[in-house]
Amino acid sequence: MPHDASASDATRCARAPESPRSISEPLAPPIQLSSVYRIAGLDEVDALFEGRADGFFYARDGHPNAAQLADKLAKLERAEAGVVCASGMGAIAASVLTLAEQGGRILVSEELYGKTTTLIARELARFGVTHDLFDPSKPETLRRALADAPDARLVVAETLSNPLLRVCDLEGIGAVAREADVPLLIDHTFAPLLCKPIAMGTTLVVHSLTKLIGGHADVTLGAVVGPRELIDRIHAVASTFGQTGSAFDCWLAMRGAVTLPLRVERTSRTALELARRLEVHPKVLRTSYPGLPSHPDHTLAKRQFSGGFGAMISFDAGGREQADRIIRGLRAIPFAPSLGDAQTTVSHPCTTSHRGQDPAVLGRLGVTPGLIRVSVGLEDVEDLWEDLAQALEFA
Predict the structure, then answer these.
(1) What is the pTM of this model?
(2) What is the pLDDT of residue 289?
(3) CB contact burial 86-120 (16+ within 10 A = b; e otherwise)
């Protein structure tokens, strides 16, 4: 905007300053917090809305930080495009709302994250969407479910289930979904960098960026990546439902992603050692970690993953009272019902992530009142074990 020497102080305060001229560009991506963008005229508005020109007009529909983050994540997952949403559940909801329709069916994996289950089984059921279950480690169960569901519109699973860390057979499930011409959505939150679901036949990959990719417990954000045409549709739904992410959180997530490979390597190594020790501890009834030979999907995990088995461990202390005593007995590891932080945390699925789910179903799946989930961080393994061991003795 040209400088107006005659403008009053009120006008000078109200108007945005001109962008400084520079022949250089910032090395780190700048935060761009503007909620709206200046446009030259009506022809330019038409060009933006019709996709004939690149640019932004309103932050809910897109902004530079979201575009940069979506592009980074799409390239990371070998996808054509991506869209950033206000949370991981926002990304899942936008994807499901795009593909579901009244009278249609969604096939969901057993042990799915509690809020995803609630979205599909309870909330979408109010609009005539039904669902069936399958075992993600056994593709034949999906084949049978699809044979009974000609109205299937979407298959939803997780690379690693929450909280028992069962492993989805991505290639097998992907092949069955492709045969039926039904899109497959994989929640890859627990396993970034461990494998590439799209290369194995997945249509859409979702991340809760709040977790391991953000990595510092200071972001609430999600993303979905996949084919450009489908992502464009999901983006439109996300904008309409107000599900898109903020500029500052996008900037934080981009910063967190820089160290993701280092954190995945370190936490996977520490988690494996802690899981080995927990498995033989007399106060632990069972330990779930895909890197352990005792895990039911260990062979599949070895074939499917590279560079480790992830940062998540679950172990059963026997009952709610024992779990509570362990959690209260921890001196340095906080009880914080999320995951993926640089510091180690613990959670109690029955009272947090899976709260309100059918107790009989949870019991059948093994999500018991004594189950504790550990999100392994960057601390020294001996310091972590010292705290866990004394808490187990306290219990």
Answers:
(1) 0.94
(2) 98
(3) bbbbbbbbbbbbbbbeeebbbbbbbbbbbbbbbbb
